[in-house]
Structure formats: structure tokens, C-alpha cells
Amino acid sequence: MTQIDQQQQRTRMPVQTGFTLKALLLSSGAAFALLGPGMASATLGEPEASVQSDVQELRGSIKEADHGSYRVHEIQLPSGTVVREYSGVDGIVFAVTWQGPFMPNLRQMLGRYFDPYAAAAKADHADHHHLQVQQSDLVVQVSGHMRAFTGRAYLPHAIPGGVSMENLQ
Amino acid sequence: VRSAAARLLRTGCGMLISLATLSCGGGNTVAGSSGGSPVTPASNVVSVVINGGPTGLTSPAINTLYTTVTVCVPGTTTCQSIDHIQVDTGSYGLRLLASQVTLSLPVNTSTSGASLVECTTFVDGYSWGPVSRVDVQISGESAHSVPVQLIGDNRFPASTVPVDCSSSGPTIEDTVAQFGANGILGVGPFVQDCGSACVNTAQPATYYSCTQAVCSATTVPLTSQVLNPVTLFPTDNNGTIIELPSVSASGAASVTGSLIFGIDTQSNNQSGSQTVLALNQGVYITTVFNGQTLSASFIDSGSNGTFFTDSNIALCPSPNSSFYCPASPQTLSATLQGMNGTSVAESFSVTSLAGVASTVTALPGLAGSNPTAGSFDWGLPFFYNRRVATAIEGYTTSAGTGPYVAF
Fold first, then answer.
1. Complex ipTM
2. How far is it, in rounded angstroms, from Cα B322 to Cα A149?
3. CA separation (Å) from B123 to A103, B106, B253, B367?
4. pLDDT at res. A20
5. What is the rounded CA–CA span in Å between residue B262 and residue B144?
6. Cβ B371–A165 below 8 Å, yes or no?
7. Residue A166: pLDDT above 80?
8. Measured by CB atoms within 10 angstroms of the end CB, which terminus of chain A is less buried, N or C?
């Protein structure tokens, strides 16, 4: 809770307030363990402990919540964007989500899935505010407008039983 | 046939502009105002058109709103008009495809004295190019020395795009074909495209200070950021109104309407009894649909359909599998809620893309699945047959203080 308060005091981007509030609500429903800035975060399809670079690279603060069949690593980026990475009991990251005023570094978050995502995305060109890549092994869904983006990417075959799409926000 | 129709429209538009520096009126297939008295030409009104888009698109645009903007070398009468600039309430600031700019425009300097270059991230890609200043003339309004982005400027080719920028999205959008327009006029409810977040912190994939081919992220003062040019008009600067006529369910080959500057500043932009939905700090509203409360909803002229999630409606076959193709037209309803506690029920239509005439560029029932949970995107179909006002953050009208959307 202390850390969340500090985040609110640091808030300069108006958009961040809403997301911090969401984090506050989430923390009341799940026991978050505060992790140090050097702790691992992970990339889609990779072991959660395999990538030491996300938090340092993104200069974010991280919290972790254990929901039993999956864990959520929540990274608060300095830009105000919140990134969440979901890993199963096998430790593999099966989903990543983001919400906030700036797009996160998708190359980092999607890892080896970034290039397939980029290739598929070129074919789907509805407008500047939506993007959906739906493949058997990869789903990427992004929408929003300037200064307010929302998105998620997941590996359909790797989602643990009992986890619904509504859990991935 | 579709691209030929678009080319014909643009030719007529170009003639008008060269004769009288008027804005493009389009083909008048469907034109007029949505109820009430028609908008008559005035110093604060510019025509907007929905058609197949500029030359060079690989497929015609649909439900894409364009206008014509005149830009000038600051302080001079050296000007040019550029048609097919998309009108977007989901972004902030004027961006021009450099390939369409004939003016000689110096690049603005960053705080360190190098060139100021921007990475603009959209959902479907990123656009890279320097920031310059132009005088903007649109209808009778003019704004002096407006920071704008020149996308795809060969002074900063794609080879200079920083990795942070190219990691923000799937593809670069630096040509008319990639971008879908000759430029974009962001008249959404924020003033700047970044705001205070960029003043003290160099944000990744945003603004860069470039010395030749070496670019590093930089902070940018508010007044140097690319910003909504409406806020720099001497008057009529608190927001905009988009007014479009009704369009039949079967669609139209082209539609013309009006973009009106200012809210409650002239006789033609009065709020009257409009419903005002205040926006939160993410410029979101809430939509209640099918029992779901979707708190990241927005009204956006730059989205070409109504985007929501309803698993009971069939999706179209590939390659349009993001859009709905119901067996028969659907009429659905939802409730929009503003942050001011105001709520209003809306009905909207969903028609199948299958069977739509190939000449159609305006289709009120175009709808698709929303990629993200918790969001309902009221795109351009929402704007048909009504006046939608967008009040800018911190600016006051007779109906309240922005950011809000009213209709």
C-alpha cells in the first residue's frame, strides 16, 4: 500500500491516476508481494525467471500476485503505462497485457512472437485505432487512441485450465 | 470503379482550392445537416468528406473522414492546400505526409539544439518524422507557427528510426498508402500529443533529439509539442463540432458534412440542449452493453466502425475477420455514461459487409469485434445524422469545461 501511495504522489500524467486506482483495487483482492527492482520479469513464451532485463530495461517497479493456477507480475512503468505478465505453474509466461498513455516496448514483451505479430499485423489494417492478430498459436489485440492504449497478447495453447479471458486485463 | 470515383472527387476538390483557397466539398452524394437548420458557409466551418481516400491507397477507405488544410511557411504567403487530411478526434495535432508537402520547412530544434524528431505510435504502427512549424489555415480560421509532424521526411529516413520506436508497433507508416491519408488532423480533447509526461521525462518511442542519424529520447516543453491547432486559433478555440448527415443503411458512395470550430462562440456552434458526457483523465466514457460495464470506452471519428464484443454475432470471413457479418441486419442498444453522471441510451446498427456495393465508402452499420476487454469504441458511424461536439481539456463552453463530448 505504501508503494501505491508513492506512485500516486509521483503521478504527473493524468491518465495514470485511473490505472493506479485499478492497481489499488486489485491489491485489496489479492496479496501482492512487493519485489525489488532487480527481480525478474519475463517475456511471452519464456520462463518467468529467464529474463532479468524487463524491469531494469523499462525502469519500472514490479509487484507479484499469486492466484493459484497463475501468477501476475505487474510492472508500473515510469510513463504511466501498466504492464502485466501472466505465468502458469510451469513458470511459462502465457499472456501479457498493457494499459496506459504510452505503448510499451512490444519487441521486449512479445520476444520471439514480435516478428510473427508484426508480419500478421500488416495484413490487418482496419484503422489506426484497432489491431487484431488471431492465429492458432498467438493472439494479439490492441485498441485505443493517442495517450490511451490498451492491449493484450496471449498464447492460446498455453493458457492454464480455469483461466478465462476476463482474467487477462 | 471505387478508385476512379475517389480520383474524380479529388480532382474537383483541387480545382476549387486553386481557384479560391476554399476547402474541398466532395461529390455531394449525401450532403446536408442532421436536423435543425443547415450549416451555412461561415468563417468557422470547413467541409469534410467521406470517400475512398487519396490516390495511392491499395484499397479504398471506408468510413474515413477527410478535410482539406492549407499550410504556409510561417509569416509568409507561401502556402499550399493538402486534401484528404483525416479528421481524427482520437489524436492531437496536425501530421502531414512529407511526400505531399511542397513547402520548404526547417526542422525545429530540440532543447539540446539538435533536430526534434517524433515517433508517433498508433495502434497499427508508428510514424517517424521531424517536427516543423507552419501557419495553418482552415476555413476562415488561422493559427500561427503551429508545431506539426512531417511523416516520412527524407531528411530522417526509416534507417534513422530508433529501436524503441520500431519496437512500439508492428510496422512503419510513412507513406500515404501505409497511412491511409495525406495527413491527419487530430482535434481530440487533449491539447498536446504527449502533454506533461514529456516535459520532465524523456519518454521512449515519443520525441527524439537527432544529430544526423543519431537520435536519443528527449524531453519537450509543452509549447514545442505537436498540438491540436484549434487551440492556437485566436477565437473558436475551445473545441470542434463534427456534423454529418444521415446515411442510408445500404451505404453511400460519398458523404459531405461540416467541421465547425468553436463551441458556443458563434451562432452556428451553440450547445443548446445537447447531452454532455464528461470524459475522465484517459478521455474515456463508460458504456453499458449486454450487462457489461465497459469503462475504457470512447467516441472517436478516427475509428471506422462500431467496435464492441458480442459473441452472438458472426464475424466475416478472412481477410475481414475483425468485422461482423450478421445473417441479417441487427439493431442493438447500449447506454453511454459520462464522468459527470449523465447517461444516455443509444441504438446502433450492425450490417454485414457481405453484399455491400463496391462503390460504398460510408456504411453506418459497419461494426467489428473490439480487440480489448472493457472497451466499446463508438467510431464514425456514431457521428452520422448528428452533431458531435468535442470540448478540449481546460476550455470552457456554455455547457461545461472540457474534456467532454456532447451530442
1. 0.82
2. 18
3. 8, 29, 27, 18
4. 29
5. 17
6. no
7. no
8. N
